[in-house]
């Protein structure tokens, strides 16, 4: 199926959207088109055509008070749902005191202990964004090894800075079994290409090639164990095992970037999916953010005692102004201790699996497969789950199809994940209202997918 067929319908849908229509009135056609394209260039999705003004539980509401079932929960950030009463009480209590103070407070110590216990860490440092946490991991790795280079897999996004954004999108022509050419995506980052080694895909062949050529120069290997932008697509176990062995052999720091997936795929992050193999794949550092604080600006870099104590033993610039913000600390504490408890996480994982199974029953004839990981999952052509990321051809046809689904879903009162047909369930889905809405969401997803494919096939 050609990409142009999907684009034909996609362009028609964009022209219907509310915000695009408003832009036409204010700026005229040429300026509005420029703004829409600029938004897509920066954020990799079309501008959101709906202005959500408030939310409650599993629902978001626009200015006309129309309800939308939220199955995306903003990249797994709003796992507490919308307007959660437990979270509101915790934030109100925190806001009654000084928001930022000098020194380490008891609430910070309590949260650090909770994080260390839950995510099996010896020590943690607090940050305000996932990009800061991953940059801290890079600083620690460079200090520990005395080296500069970083290895990553093409298509994985690790931060808004140079090393995290380079080659964070697939171009469709990478060789998964070889080292790829670093591709700067942000202006001003090209000068840093020499510090980055990029694998074309998750293959042990490419990994061994990279270590043979650069192993003595590498400070860190960064891995997204579940790639959020690909619908929580899991890294192959054999790749994780090989990465651990090679890092040990060459003295390289292994970092798992769980900023997106950490609160979603398991009670203690990606560890939950590989409990039987942890001793073979365990990273030296882990980075967590997004859902662990329900949308408050909070992130964590944590790991072994030897690495984390480097922060106090050498000159590493790692002080963030708002790292001890009382509201963020309260949000993370409430989220981990009262809302996303192990019991709730297990129950939501079962709901997510039910969602995937229902979709698979309905979409099997289209060779689409729904996969669930923890609280989240996505639908993709089933052969993509068996191939390496660079072989999947994420660009092109699929991008247009996913964007078209996203816009049609909004029109039908369903909030999905831009860039793929995905979901992340929040704790209100454990309530009776959530169970009913989940069945409604399944019906909507199936109907929209079938309509799009049939329209494109017979147009």
How does CATH name the architecture of the largest domain?
A: 3-Layer(aba) Sandwich
Q: How many angstroms does the end-to-end distance come to? A: 11 Å
Provide the CATH topology of the largest domain.
Aspartate Aminotransferase, domain 2
> Low-confidence spans: pLDDT under 50, at least 5 residues?
1-10, 18-36, 38-46, 314-318, 383-397
Residue-averaged pLDDT: 80
- Our estimate of the beta-strand percent is 15-25%
CATH class of the largest domain: Alpha Beta
What does this structure look like?
The protein has 459 residues and is α/β, with parallel strands linked by helices. It folds into 2 domains: 194 residues, Aspartate Aminotransferase, domain 1 (Alpha-Beta Complex); 255 residues, Type I PLP-dependent aspartate aminotransferase-like (Major domain) (Aspartate Aminotransferase, domain 2, 3-Layer(aba) Sandwich), CATH 3.40.640. It is 44% helix and 16% strand. The chain contains 16 helices and 17 strands. Strands 4-13-12-11-8-5-7-6 form an 8-stranded mixed beta sheet, sandwiched between helices. The chain has a 4-stranded mixed beta sheet with strand order 1-2-3-16. Strands 14-15-17 form a 3-stranded antiparallel beta sheet. α5 packs across α13 and α14 runs parallel beside α16. The longest helix has 26 residues. The N terminus is likely disordered.
């Amino acid at each position: 199926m050609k990409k142009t067929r999907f684009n034909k319908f996609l362009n028609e849908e964009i022209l219907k959207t509310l915000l695009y229509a408003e832009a036409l009135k204010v700026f005229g056609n040429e300026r509005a088109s420029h703004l829409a394209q600029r938004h897509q260039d920066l954020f990799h999705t079309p501008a959101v055509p709906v202005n959500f003004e408030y939310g409650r539980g599993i629902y978001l509401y626009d200015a006309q008070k129309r309800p939308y079932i939220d199955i995306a929960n903003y990249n797994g950030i709003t796992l507490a749902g919308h307007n959660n009463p437990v979270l509101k009480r915790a934030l109100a209590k925190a806001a009654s005191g000084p928001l930022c103070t000098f020194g380490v407070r008891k609430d910070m110590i309590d949260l650090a202990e909770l994080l260390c216990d839950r995510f099996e860490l010896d020590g943690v440092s607090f940050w305000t964004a996932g990009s800061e946490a991953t940059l801290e991991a890079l600083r620690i790795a460079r200090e520990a090894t005395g080296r500069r280079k970083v290895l990553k897999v093409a298509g994985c996004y690790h931060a808004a800075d140079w090393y995290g954004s380079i080659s964070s999108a697939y171009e469709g022509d990478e060789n998964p079994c070889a080292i790829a050419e670093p591709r700067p995506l942000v202006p001003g980052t090209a000068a840093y290409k020499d510090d980055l080694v990029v694998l074309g895909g998750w293959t042990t062949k490419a990994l061994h090639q990279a270590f043979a050529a650069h192993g003595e120069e590498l400070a860190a290997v960064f891995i997204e164990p579940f790639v959020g932008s690909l619908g929580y697509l899991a890294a192959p176990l054999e790749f994780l095992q090989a990465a651990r062995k090679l890092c040990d052999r060459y003295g390289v720091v292994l970092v798992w970037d769980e900023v997106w997936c950490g609160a979603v795929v398991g009670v203690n992050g990606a560890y939950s999916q590989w409990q039987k193999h942890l001793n073979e794949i365990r990273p030296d550092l882990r980075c967590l953010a997004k859902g662990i604080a329900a949308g408050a600006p909070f992130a964590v870099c944590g790991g072994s005692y030897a690495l984390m104590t480097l922060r106090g033993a050498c000159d590493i610039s790692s002080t963030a102004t708002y790292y001890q913000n009382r509201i963020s600390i309260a949000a993370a504490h409430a989220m981990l201790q009262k809302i996303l408890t192990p019991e709730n996480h297990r129950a939501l994982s079962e709901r997510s699996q039910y969602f995937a199974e229902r979709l698979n029953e309905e979409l099997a004839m289209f060779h689409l497969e729904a996969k669930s990981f923890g609280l989240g999952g996505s639908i993709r052509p089933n052969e993509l789950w068996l191939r390496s990321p660079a072989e999947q051809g994420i660009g092109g046809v699929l991008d247009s199809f996913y964007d078209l689904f996203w816009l049609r879903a909004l029109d039908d009162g369903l909030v999905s994940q831009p860039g793929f047909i995905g979901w992340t369930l929040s704790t209100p889905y454990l309530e009776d209202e959530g169970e009913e809405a989940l069945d409604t969401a399944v019906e909507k997803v199936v109907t929209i997918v079938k309509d799009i494919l049939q329209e494109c096939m017979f147009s």
